[in-house]
Amino acid sequence: MVRAPCLLLLLLWSLMHVSATVPEPCEVDDDNFRCVCNFTNPQPNWSSALSCINAVEVEIRGGGRSLHQFIKIADTDLKLYANLVRTLPLQRLTVGAARVPALLLFAVLRGLGYSRLNELMLEDLEVTGTPPPPPLEATGPALSTLSIRNVSWATGGSWLAELQQWILPDIKVLNIAQADSLAFSCAELRTFPALVTLNLSDNPGLGEHGLTVALCPHKFPALRELEVRNAGMKTPNGVCEALAAAGVQPHHLDLSHNSLRATAPGAPGCVWPSTLNSLILSFAGLEQVPKGLPSKLSVLDLSFNRLNREPRVDELPTVGSLTLDGNPFLDPRPPTHQEDPNDSGMVSACASSMLAVGMSGALALLQGAGAFA
């Protein structure tokens, strides 16, 4: 009897017979811990995915093709495979680069409810067609982390509410990047009672208005960390207003890698959440410290901005840890090239070390020459 590593791989034995000359698309590491499948061949050997059966981490990429041929899984009584799925060590699964019928996706999630899957990543997918009727209660996997990147859904803004119906409500981390739509249907969305981290980074078209729409009121009661890097934010004050409208109370807010500007004079003030103690404003193009920041913070990161002078005390909140690295006022020399913020002076340090070694070597040679004179 042929066994399958997860519900995506069920029934592979009956799909096709592939020539032995076709290269194996799946690779397993020496410890049989991680298995990666990339089905880019024009005639993919899908059955090679069986080599992933004992892997803890599995990554399956469909080469951009449709997975409609696996739709028969949606009609399978998955309870028949429950004992098999429970024995699998699978904990982290990535599915990417494919067109997936909604019927197939949600059938797989239902079957993965019998597994030990902890983290699921859906990436570069097109989810097509109408989803199945919602279950009476969520029977899918008990995920702690769900990541969605560059996934389009035929159902538009209702996709998160539909997806939520097929996973258990214990999810703690939700990452959504390059989203087709973040205009969620808040009336349909259920509460995320255990969600601690919401990451909406890398959605450059989001903006403050989109953030207000995405943060459905009263749906994220346990939220502690909100990350909106590279998400089209314009001013810290605008983000504050979005938080106030949604009633979320994060402890940590990351606004880095947005092109931020100071709040316009005369703009109404905003009361920041009393819980907020860590604010990241690095790589934001700031030429001065924005007004209207929280009055007290444990952490304020203003690194790698365009501050030409050290901020005065009256411009800053009461802050325990202030980071100003990478601002022009700390390095008065005119820049001679575009600096890489990840360089951290490594090239200069290496150059200095090489020069020192060269000089020491030359001195040693001269001393040696003197000894033989």
UniProtKB/TrEMBL annotation:
Question: Which pairs of Cys residues are joined through disulfide bonds in the record?
Answer: C26-C37, C35-C52, C186-C216, C240-C270
Parts of the chain that traverse the membrane = none
Q: Which UniProt keywords apply?
A: Cell membrane, Disulfide bond, Glycoprotein, Golgi apparatus, GPI-anchor, Immunity, Inflammatory response, Innate immunity, Leucine-rich repeat, Lipoprotein, Membrane, Repeat, Secreted, Signal
Q: How does it sit in the membrane?
A: Lipid-anchor; GPI-anchor
- Region feature (Disordered): 318-345
Which residues constitute the signal peptide according to the record?
Answer: 1-20
List this protein's GO terms for biological process.
Answer: cellular response to diacyl bacterial lipopeptide; cellular response to lipoteichoic acid; cellular response to triacyl bacterial lipopeptide; inflammatory response; innate immune response; positive regulation of endocytosis; positive regulation of interleukin-8 production; positive regulation of lipopolysaccharide-mediated signaling pathway
The main location class comes to membrane
Q: Provide a GO CC annotation, any one.
A: external side of plasma membrane
Molecular-function annotations in GO: lipopolysaccharide binding; lipopolysaccharide immune receptor activity; lipoteichoic acid binding; molecular carrier activity
List locations, semicolon-separated: Cell membrane; Golgi apparatus; Membrane raft; Secreted
User: What role does this protein play?
Assistant: Coreceptor for bacterial lipopolysaccharide. In concert with LBP, binds to monomeric lipopolysaccharide and delivers it to the LY96/TLR4 complex, thereby mediating the innate immune response to bacterial lipopolysaccharide (LPS). Acts via MyD88, TIRAP and TRAF6, leading to NF-kappa-B activation, cytokine secretion and the inflammatory response.
- How does it associate, per the subunit comment? Belongs to the lipopolysaccharide (LPS) receptor, a multi-protein complex containing at least CD14, LY96 and TLR4. Interacts with LPAR1.
- Give the protein's recorded name: Monocyte differentiation antigen CD14
Please tell me the species this chain comes from. Answer: Pteropus vampyrus (Large flying fox)
